[in-house]
Amino acid sequence: MAQVGGIFTSFDIAASALRAERARMNVHANNLANVNTIHDRYGENNPYHRKLIAFKPGNPSMTGSEYLGVEVDSIIDDYDTDLQRRYMPNHPDADLEGYVKFPNVNPTLEMVDMMVAQRAFEANLTSFEAAKTIFTGALRIIA
Description:
Radius of gyration: 21 Å
Largest sheet: 2 strands, antiparallel
Number of strands: 4
Helix content: 40-55%
Number of helices: 3
Number of domains: 1
Distance between the termini: 34 Å
Structural class: alpha+beta
Strand order of the largest sheet: 1-2
Shape: elongated
């Protein structure tokens, strides 16, 4: 059973979701920024691999409970999706068949995922604002 926190728990829950969604938007922005990155930091032909983010329920550092809120569980490289191959026989990184490996980043998918993250961020911001309105109303009643 979920623990019920203090009067600020709803703020903490919404804030944990805002942080998680911001992290998700950052991951998608990073993927888009590296859509044509075919070399690693050492200059080797090692294309960028799309990053995937996973959340887990609970955020004890913010909500005081392992049942309330959300936090980033992991950010991993996507090695399950094949790298793109483009026929570019004159490119210095082309293989024997004339293909160059490019990142497994699909810009359309990244933009759709980023819009979903943006909508989730906005929904949690609305939740935060609603909690603030309720809290302010309760203070007016008390005062």
